[in-house]
Amino acid sequence: MKPTILLGRLALIAGVIFLIAAPAFLSLRGMQLTTEFMSLLVLAMMWNLLAGYADIVTVGQHAFVGIGAYAFFGFLVLLGVDPYLSVLLAGVVSLIFAIPVMGLIFRLRAGYLAVGSWVVAETLMLAAGKLSAFGGGSGKSMPVSFVKSFGASTPDRYANVYWLAFALLAAAFLSTWYLLRSRIGVGLTAMRDDEEGAGAIGVNLRRARVLCFLWVAPFLGMAGAIITMQKLRVAPPASFSILDWTVYIIFIVVIGGVGSFEGPIIGTIVFFLIREFLNDLGVWHLIILGVISIGVILVEPKGIWGLLRRFVPGDLIPVGHKPRR
Amino acid sequence: MTGVWVNQIVQGILLGGLYAMFALGLSLSAGVMRFINIAHGDLIVLVCFLVLTLTTSLGLSPLVAAAITLPVVFAGGYLLQRLLLQRVLGQHVLPVILVTFGLSIIIQNALQGTYGADTRKVQGGVIEYATIHVAGEINVGVLPLVIFVSAILMVWLLDRLLYRTRIGARIRAVSDDVAAANLIGLPSPHIFALAMGFVGVTIAISAGFMSVWTNFDPTSGPSRLLIAFEAVVLGGLGSLWGTLIGGIILGVAQAVGGQFDAAWQVLAGHIVFLIIFALRPQGLFPRY
């Protein structure tokens, strides 16, 4: 193994060990941040799967995060379902919503699809504001008795939500890795590199797109549920936040490297490292992120990972296959 | 009672004129350059703030201010296309979506940093309050009527420009086949940039009217983009007159929805769009 690859993989393993060991030594604030980190990483991996591989650039990803949040709240608070089962059910509801949404926006292509997905997200957000059981436009907080159902004390609750986010991240990481290494994934990688060529050698483009869209929806919904377990309330503009669940995610993936498995991971780490510093700058932090991502697209469209990849001879997380000799 | 509803529909049609204006530029860039400019709404709002600054700090009338913005925004559109967008247009669709998306976020936050988050409006003077009594409960504001007539005029002029002039023929040529246009000696980057300059003119005119008629704040852009996008898709891609009809449908849907319950105004527009789109994805008057 080349030393650069070894170094990269060691860093990756160190990261996993950190995530497993973190609850033992992190403060509550640190736990909260790391939980948020894992949720955002799941969102970034999912957006990357759609935009980077399947050529489905959505600007409406926050729709499914919001649906997950509302579904979770509905199952837990309104129907009294077990909180952990509610997280799973939030993923199911998100998947169910994905089917008609897909039916609508898959009639559009490229930029039209991007804005079309945004229209759908906006409509769903406004519609969520009409649900009086969820507090209408101003939203609703989770009653304390339900909050205690996933952690009797505050440290307990933080730890439970942490491990849920960890489990979701692990599931998203391993299953998406498996997907990309499968026959379908090889087709997706071919689509990423040359769509017409992929179609010509027999990759079923439509089936691959449908699979990816439906793959992503439950993960987004469950991430929305876990985010709601942290925020303890739902409200249309916060649960369906385009800034938090779409704008930041797009910046993360573009800066980290779109169309690679490593890109979203690098992007999320970079985002968290610079966020604390950038937050002091008010509106300027978004301007800076916007300028950086436009710069990235002009200079190195494959982002930081694309830049590093010039010195690293292979993938850290191998999604391809070596041809047999 | 029917008078109230008829009045709402009339107001909706007039509102549709403004929406069609938003959509014309998007329709042109989508039809010619084959991309959707996600920053379209934010560019409109940017020009609204430009008009605001010209009227408040220099004390100009909105009409003069809007006239000043015209050449500025034409040049801005030309340079935006020539220096930035042209570089990322090509085989892949991802770069141009992401660049215009980044631009949208930059404009919104730059406006917020410069002007604050307050809702603004440009004072238009007497014309704002002048109304014409038509019949019964139907009153038509002079300003909305002027805007509506201007929208029709803009569609007609743009249609003439594209199909009756030399530059229009060139624009259609580079739009149909860049390689062939280059081969016969057309300077395609220059022509694309000119087309974006014309998009800028539609943006300046619609922003001039919008700044006087409606409130706006630095985050108003996306809602304008969505309206413009819906009007373009409803009308059928490439059909300018279709875009006008699309805008009117949205305006009427919002006005009627708002009459039921003010909170339903925007949602009603989106729902009507999604229903018509589900039934007729190619739009009402598809050109191609």
UniProtKB/TrEMBL annotation, chain A:
Keyword field: Cell membrane, Membrane, Transmembrane, Transmembrane helix
Keyword presence, Repeat: no
CDD domains: TM_PBP1_LivM_like (cd06581)
Localization (cell): Cell membrane
A Pfam family matched in the record: BPD_transp_2
GO cellular component: plasma membrane
Name this protein carries in UniProt: Branched-chain amino acid ABC transporter permease
Domain of life assignment: Bacteria
Entry's transmembrane regions: 7-25, 37-56, 63-81, 87-106, 113-133, 161-180, 210-227, 247-274, 281-299
GO MF: branched-chain amino acid transmembrane transporter activity
Membrane topology: Multi-pass membrane protein
Entry keyword annotation includes Repeat: no
Automatic annotation (TrEMBL), chain B:
Molecular function via GO: transmembrane transporter activity
CDD domains noted in UniProt: TM_PBP1_LivH_like
Transmembrane segments: 6-28, 60-80, 92-111, 138-158, 191-213, 225-250, 262-279
Primary localization class, coarse: membrane
Top-rank lineage group of the source organism: Bacteria
Compartmental location: Cell membrane
Pfam families, A to Z: BPD_transp_2
Keyword terms, alphabetized: Amino-acid transport, Cell membrane, Membrane, Transmembrane, Transmembrane helix, Transport
Membrane topology: Multi-pass membrane protein
GO CC, one annotated term: plasma membrane
GO terms for biological process, alphabetical: amino acid transport
Entry's family note: Belongs to the binding-protein-dependent transport system permease family. LivHM subfamily.
UniProt protein name: Branched-chain amino acid ABC transporter permease
Organism taxonomic ancestry: Bacteria, Pseudomonadati, Pseudomonadota, Alphaproteobacteria, Hyphomicrobiales
